[in-house]
Design goal:
Layout lengths: L1 H30 L7 E15 L4 E16 L1 H11 L3 E11 L5 E12 L12 E2 L2 E2 L18 E5 L4 E13 L2 E15 L12 H7 L2 E13 L4 E14 L9 E11 L1 H48 L4 H4 L10
Antiparallel strand pairs: 1-2, 1-12, 2-3, 3-4, 4-5, 5-6, 7-8, 8-9, 9-10, 10-11, 11-12
Helix pairs in contact: 1-4
């Protein structure tokens, strides 16, 4: 009976030991994915910013500039691309909408970002664009991979349509979460005018005819939770200028926007709570279940060996000695 129990326990131990790497290396890449139909938004603010008044073409101080970013998963487009890409794909149709303190639009930049649902590597397909211009992204944008590492990453900048390193600057604690801090500096670079301008009748083509150009620089900072790869906080030291041309008169340049852009407090709280929840789910697949299964397998193996040893132990001779026959009377 003990031998049968030990064999059953041994089979369970082998199953648990085999399940551990399957959970980590097979189930995790297939289950930990960005949902194709995910929708999310984020509000950032730049207080005491400088903004261009297009009526006078003069820069002025304003109490606040608001940036609303929305990300909407396009399921139909993702399914079409998956047929040829051969891997799970997410298509984000995003919009960065900037408005002044009076609520009027300053700029709106749409993007289509196509990436692998698990690794976050860019997937090149028709429709990949920034403000209507086709682009070929290299490196990440918006989100880091699951299980992010302490190293530099290539990060795509939508304004310049180029990729450059975003540097790992150390480990920090943010709202009780263990995070990695990354920083990227984009030097002054000539960038295209937005297709949608804040003044009716002014277009990128009409501005180009005046000889005026748009320049941009930023210092981009992210606090990234490494298990999920999700930024829990981000900010930018952002500056834009218009330079040269007849549009500015006798001035060589004018500030179009300058400000310290930060996430709004309510969106920080929401993001941190969401990342905490998703972190537990990812750890369940990468740590809790695999290590728990392996530990259970070792315990079952030890119990199986113990029962096997008990079944092979020689029995007590006194317990096996046959009883003496009773004498038979006449």
């Amino acid at each position: 009976m003990r031998r049968k129990a030990s064999l059953v326990l041994l089979a369970c131990a082998v199953f648990c030991a085999a399940l551990a790497p399957l959970l980590r290396w097979y189930a995790f890449p297939r289950l930990a994915r960005i949902p194709a139909g995910q929708y999310q938004d984020m509000v950032l603010e730049a207080r005491d910013a400088t903004l261009l008044d297009y009526g006078t073409m003069r820069a002025k101080k304003v109490p606040k500039v608001t940036i609303v970013q929305t990300f909407k998963g396009n399921v139909e487009a993702a399914e079409n691309i998956e047929r040829t890409a051969g891997r799970p794909v997410v298509v984000w149709d995003s919009l960065s909408y900037v408005q002044g303190p009076d609520g009027k639009m300053v700029s709106r930049i749409p993007e289509r970002y196509i990436f692998d649902a698990h690794t976050q590597d860019p997937v090149h397909a028709t429709g990949e664009s920034v403000d209507g211009d086709p682009v070929t992204r290299h490196g990440i944008e918006f989100k880091w991979p699951f299980l992010a590492q302490k190293r530099d990453y290539e990060y795509f900048d939508a304004q310049t349509r180029t990729t450059s390193p975003i540097h790992y600057r150390g480990t920090r604690t943010f709202r009780g979460l263990h995070v990695y801090y990354f920083e990227q500096t984009i030097p002054w670079t000539k960038v295209p005018m937005p297709r949608t301008m804040p003044v009716k009748g002014i277009t990128p083509a009409s501005v180009a005819r005046t000889g005026t150009t748009r320049w941009y620089t930023t210092v981009r900072r992210f606090w990234v939770e490494p298990v999920t790869g999700a930024p829990v906080y981000g900010e930018e030291l952002h500056r834009e200028e218009l330079r040269g041309g007849t549009l500015l008169g006798d001035r060589a340049k004018v500030t179009a926007f300058a400000g310290h852009v930060k996430m709004r407090e309510d969106y920080i709280e929401h993001t941190v709570a969401l990342v905490r929840h998703n972190r537990t789910l990812v750890l369940t697949l990468t740590s809790y279940l695999p290590w728990g299964s392996l530990t259970l397998g070792l315990l079952l193996l030890a119990l199986s060996l113990y029962l096997e040893a008990r079944s092979r132990r020689p029995q007590d001779p006194q317990a096996t000695e046959a009883p003496a026959p009773e004498p038979v009377g006449a």
